[in-house]
Amino acid sequence: MESLPHCETLLLEKQGPTLVVTINRPDVRNAMSLQMVAELSAVFSQIESDLSIRAVVIRGSGGHFCAGGDIKDMAGARNQPAAEGEADPFYRLNRAFGQMIQQVNESSKVVIAVTEGAVMGGGFGLACVSDVAIAGPTANFGMPETSLGIIPAQIAPFVVERIGLTQARRLALLGLRINAEEACTLGIVHQAADSDEELEEMLCHTLDRVQLCAPGATAQTKALLHQVGQENMSGLLDDAAQKFAKAIRGSEGAEGTIAFMQKRPPSWAEPD
């Protein structure tokens, strides 16, 4: 395993093939500061080539996932006049966040969001770029930007990808807040737990399923899913067929086939 970057706003814990990333600013309901954005980006950059990590769990400390952007950072940007020839500080602040969630979205790892308490603004966007999202009983989701006189500039495209234009319009244009049950109905999260114990059980089951799937095949499948709608279907299927042939002739394909015939778990499913 490669060494993980030092973080002040995040707690990092390696649990077998899983990296648990806990957002750790409980005094501000884990509001997302520029430093946190930079640290999350550094973590995902570092682990991208780390084959020992197959899943990343993102959750928050103190009963909240993430309450959105940090007001102090926004105030600081307001006090910085845009220098001639340089980008507006608000642009840089907003765009840095967008680059980070795009990085999380496109990570080759399986990203699992465990949401509790406030899941607002940027936190909402972070949940929407996870591969699997699980909500606890206290989770409360929202896009409050328009009620604050601003726009959900960087998260809106990911929300539309997650739940479709019609539902994204309703949430964003009315600045609504919804509970875990409705978030599950809309597809923001995949499961909603009735208790903290059930939340942990759902997480454990999800991580068990990740362990059963070959890491290389999982990463390539995730990349393929992201290509849908980005290029013409014929070209996409040609490329997918090439990748399929390479996968089935590769070490994971061989191991998976032999393990199936021998009625045993494949090597990647064995505990470390």
UniProtKB/TrEMBL annotation:
<dbReference type="GO" id="GO:0003824">
    <property type="term" value="F:catalytic activity"/>
</dbReference>
<protein>
    <submittedName>
        <fullName>Enoyl-CoA hydratase</fullName>
    </submittedName>
</protein>
<comment type="similarity">
    <text>Belongs to the enoyl-CoA hydratase/isomerase family.</text>
</comment>
<dbReference type="InterPro" id="IPR014748">
    <property type="entry name" value="Enoyl-CoA_hydra_C"/>
</dbReference>
<dbReference type="GO" id="GO:0008300">
    <property type="term" value="P:isoprenoid catabolic process"/>
</dbReference>
<dbReference type="Pfam" id="PF00378">
    <property type="entry name" value="ECH_1"/>
</dbReference>
<dbReference type="InterPro" id="IPR001753">
    <property type="entry name" value="Enoyl-CoA_hydra/iso"/>
</dbReference>
<dbReference type="InterPro" id="IPR051683">
    <property type="entry name" value="Enoyl-CoA_Hydratase/Isomerase"/>
</dbReference>
<dbReference type="InterPro" id="IPR029045">
    <property type="entry name" value="ClpP/crotonase-like_dom_sf"/>
</dbReference>
